[in-house]
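[job 0412] stage=complex_fold ligand=PXG status=START
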Amino acid sequence: MNVPAQLNRLTEDYQASDAAHHIHAFVDQKALNAEGPRVMVRGEGLYLWDSEGKRYLDGMSGLWCTQLGYGRRDLTAAAAAQMDQLAYYNMFFHTTHPAVIELSELLFSLLPAHYSHVIYTNSGSEANEVLIRTVRRYWQVVGQPQKKIMIGRWNGYHGSTLAASALGGMKFMHEMGGLIPDVAHIDEPYWYAHGGELTPAEFGRRCALQLEEKILELGAENVAGFIAEPFQGAGGMIFPPQSYWPEIQRICRQYDVLVCADEVIGGFGRTGEWFAHQHFGFEPDTLSIAKGLTSGYLPMGGLVLSKRMADALVERGGVFAHGLTYSGHPVAAAVALANLKALRDEGIVRQVKDDTGPYLQKILQEVFGNHPMIGEIQGTGLLAALQFAEDKATRKRFEHENDLAWQCRTFGFEEGVIIRSTLGRMIMAPALVATRAELDELVEKTRIAVDRTARIAGKL
Ligand code: PXG
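[job 0412] stage=complex_fold status=DONE, emitting structure tokens
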């Protein structure tokens, strides 16, 4: 069988061809070509191997997505069986198929009862593209067509396509031509960086009240929805203060603005709850999902709708003018079904909540609680961020925190662990099947990388 990773070509050979053909994500391509990317060839459990035979503990579950880890034969078997049975069909032409139906039955058995419908996509970005049109359509159907504006947050991330990047608040993405009309932004609830003299609770309320101010500025009659990640992922794994979400929920209800939770990272057990909004205790109208839905084995995302929205769209909406060739793709659906069954039947989400999640948080506190480089540890479940601080007492951050974090990530690779850096934060989000021993290894290798960084920064 011609499996590309088993061809054993030389690393330099792969790198030269890669440089000749690819524009990679979020890097200076010329610099990457000079350095040469690592070539990953195999994965098993939490571990990856590159073309030089070096092994890495993947502390980021790929890109926050491989909930079950690599090499799960039940998922590959589900894909193969579905390919043999019905490799492709669609949900156009008045048709449907068993794989997508069984997936949805299981998905809604895991979700709170007030959600009823889903529109499948291939990715999280697409889920948020669909979100904008669906939310606007909903307001048209219920007689308020002028409600069109979506409010997002600075430093939020909702994907890389045009509308998704506009909803997000990464200015450098907007500058690359990523803006659309009828989108506004409010500040992020990042207390460590922006809280000043306020307590976290005061700051959380202050950030939420910005939403009210923005709604009043734009006119509540024009605002369709507020989109946010329950906790920011790509922006730095930032938890809002506890006062934030209840206040946001109150404001959205008061002004009849839909709460759109982007669960692309938070969904499917990451926090120890099935969905992150359950951890933070609020009730969104829509959920954008992707990543952990299939454990990343195949691309699949979706937009989950509350029963209230779905009832309006189905009963009064007429033709819903939207459709993707691969919505509800049978093979992706079969893999998602096997993945959700495993997460449920092997008690993996429960294990994150009751055992491995608290264990990771405990050992992080033990190792980094008094570390001279670390000002704050945030996290829950199998999710954590370490905030670099130059002066812990005043929450002063390093001037070149981004460079330090990048360096720390490189040290991690050298030590055989993959952790993510964003501004001055080091992030980990290992596969949900991680054992205590694997979490020990993750934290120990991260400690070595952080210590090496602290030496450069003059903190050790
Ligand atoms: N919403 C959220 C909250 C995300 O984190 C998307 C939407 C877009 O999903 P797709 O499937 O279109 O990529 C994301 C994606 C990182 C990183 O390094 C995060 C994402 C993607 C790539 C890298 O943190 N999140």
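The CA atoms of residues 64 and 218 lie 35 Å apart.
[job 0412] exit 0
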